[in-house]
Task: inverse folding
């Protein structure tokens, strides 16, 4: 077994991080654009709230595509290997993102514009469905004894890296361009620049080898004919529990990023530059939370850390309205920083926890399906539901919604005490 400091190990960790950084960059530039420009650009004239809800609806399309991609890429990841499947998923996601940057608006193409947007958004989600599970397996299946959670946190660190790249670029564009220039063509640049990041991710991944755990599993027995069917038949409770275990992390992320940005700019009337700067300053706490959660998970176990993170999420949810309602960017930053720090404890351990629920022969399928179906439940509709709750009852109801999501995950994680052995 290689040591955590060897050159081959460093390549594996960089490959797992780069891919998910590209994933979150692609996904978050879409979430940001949906919050800021997609409503009036791709949908007919209506109230600003209706246009924003329509933009959030296209955001949700990818979440419903993710389980389809998870089943597709999981099938090949469990049959032919992690490496080649990860390359294919990254190319699918990257191509869809770049093409979004070339789309005409509703004024130029009518109904074809939102239809193409939804199609490419589906492509983003389809590729993403195979991305996280493969990246997590690439890391943990190369981990030395006692390092599983710390290796498994590297794909999770792609979230703050991708967020910083996406949000930082939007902030630069907002400062460099006039509002009209940004609405007309400036929003397209982050989508087109995704091609550079995808190329980097592909270059890194093509230089790594297959994981030793997968090779050992294939040497021991023939691969499953239909891995997803085997997961459903032999591990249904683990699949169900793993699915609901991730609800909290998706809910807290998209409420504290996509929804918060739309609410801060649209309802609280802060400038885009100011609110993007606040979110950019808060995201570093997500990285800190992931790092601490990875260390703590190896010192104890991922299940314990996830449960503590769910309880902390409830606490953060309870005070959401007070901090956002204070009309202070400083207090909003404090809440966002706390929420994203806590997210590190419901997200960071998942790289070790979810794959550990399934044997190696069907692990890609099981972990990917659980993660991505949980994404629908926790994040796919979160901005839409939160916006509707805020419009009708205020942020107290949004906080209640987040607290319920955390309690659902807590109830799902608690019985999952045993991990499947390799």
Result:
């Amino acid at each position: 077994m290689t040591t955590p400091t060897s050159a081959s190990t460093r390549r594996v960790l960089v490959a797992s991080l780069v891919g998910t950084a590209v994933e979150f960059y692609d996904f978050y530039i879409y979430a940001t654009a949906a919050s800021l420009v997609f409503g009036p650009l791709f949908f007919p004239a209506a109230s600003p709230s209706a246009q924003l809800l329509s933009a959030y609806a296209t955001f949700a399309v990818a979440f419903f595509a993710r389980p389809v991609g998870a089943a597709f890429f999981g099938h090949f990841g469990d049959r032919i290997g992690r490496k080649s499947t990860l390359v294919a998923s990254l190319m699918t996601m990257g191509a869809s993102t770049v093409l979004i940057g070339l789309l005409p608006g509703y004024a130029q193409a009518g109904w074809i514009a939102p239809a193409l947007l939804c199609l490419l958004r589906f492509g983003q989600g389809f590729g993403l469905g195979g991305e996280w599970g493969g990246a997590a397996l690439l890391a943990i299946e190369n981990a030395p004894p006692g390092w599983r959670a710390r290796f498994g946190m590297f794909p999770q660190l792609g979230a703050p890296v991708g967020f910083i790249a996406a949000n930082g670029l939007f902030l630069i564009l907002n400062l460099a361009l006039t509002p009209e220039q940004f609405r007309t063509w400036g929003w397209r640049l982050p989508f087109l620049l995704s091609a550079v990041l995808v190329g980097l991710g592909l270059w890194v991944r093509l230089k790594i080898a297959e994981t030793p755990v997968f090779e050992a599993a294939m040497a021991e027995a023939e691969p499953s004919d239909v891995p997803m069917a085997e997961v459903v038949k032999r591990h249904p409770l683990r699949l169900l529990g793993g699915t609901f275990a991730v609800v909290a992390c998706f809910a807290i992320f998209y409420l504290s990023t996509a929804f918060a940005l739309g609410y801060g700019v649209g309802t609280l009337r802060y400038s885009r530059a100011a609110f993007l700067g606040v979110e950019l300053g808060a995201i570093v706490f997500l990285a800190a939370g992931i790092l601490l959660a990875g260390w703590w998970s190896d010192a104890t176990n991922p299940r314990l850390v996830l449960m503590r993170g769910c309880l902390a999420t409830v606490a953060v949810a309870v005070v959401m309205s007070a901090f956002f309602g204070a009309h202070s960017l400083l207090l909003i930053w404090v809440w966002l920083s706390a929420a994203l720090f806590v997210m590190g404890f419901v997200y960071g351990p998942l790289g070790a926890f979810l794959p550990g629920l399934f044997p190696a022969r069907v692990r890609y399928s099981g972990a990917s399906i659980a993660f991505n179906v949980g994404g629908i439940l926790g994040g796919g509709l979160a901005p839409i539901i939160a916006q509707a709750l805020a419009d009708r009852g205020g942020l107290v109801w949004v906080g209640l919604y987040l607290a319920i999501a955390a309690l659902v995950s807590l109830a799902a994680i608690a019985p999952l005490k045993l991990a499947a052995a390799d």
